Amino acid sequence: MFSRKFLFRLLLAAICVVSVSLAQECADEGKTAIDPSCPDRDHLMRCAAVHLDENKNGKLDREELQGAIDRLNWLARGVLQILGSVDKMMQKCDVDGDGAISINYDMQHNKETCLATCFKKRAFKSAFFPDCDL
């Protein structure tokens, strides 16, 4: 009848078609597929406000961000290199250019540039607050 190799390829093709179809349905509805292993941006911002915003002003300034990075162990700092230097993070995340990343303004207007991928969100969470459950 059919070889295992053929059946395996047929199964993979069917999975791809279903995945594309579901993704298109989500796009058509204005929704995105939810990945339970991907931290939500709102969750990350609540955790950042508690764990990184030292002066509790609702913003992460350059010094707070650099201080948080400096306190990380070498392995976590290495993982965080995915996000780039503090200068690069500020460039991507500080939309209004005031020298701080505000949770209420900047993080609502930088979804395409700051923590834009699930991989970067996971790296950020695992480096700074892996156990945060807010």
TrEMBL record:
Signal peptide: 1-23
Keyword Transferase on entry: no
Keyword annotations: Calcium, Signal
Domain EF-hand, residue spans: 40-75
Molecular function GO terms recorded: calcium ion binding
PROSITE patterns in UniProt: EF_HAND_1 (PS00018), EF_HAND_2 (PS50222)
Keyword Signal: yes
Organism: Amphora coffeiformis
InterPro entries: EF-hand-dom_pair, EF_Hand_1_Ca_BS, EF_hand_dom
Protein name, entry field: EF-hand domain-containing protein
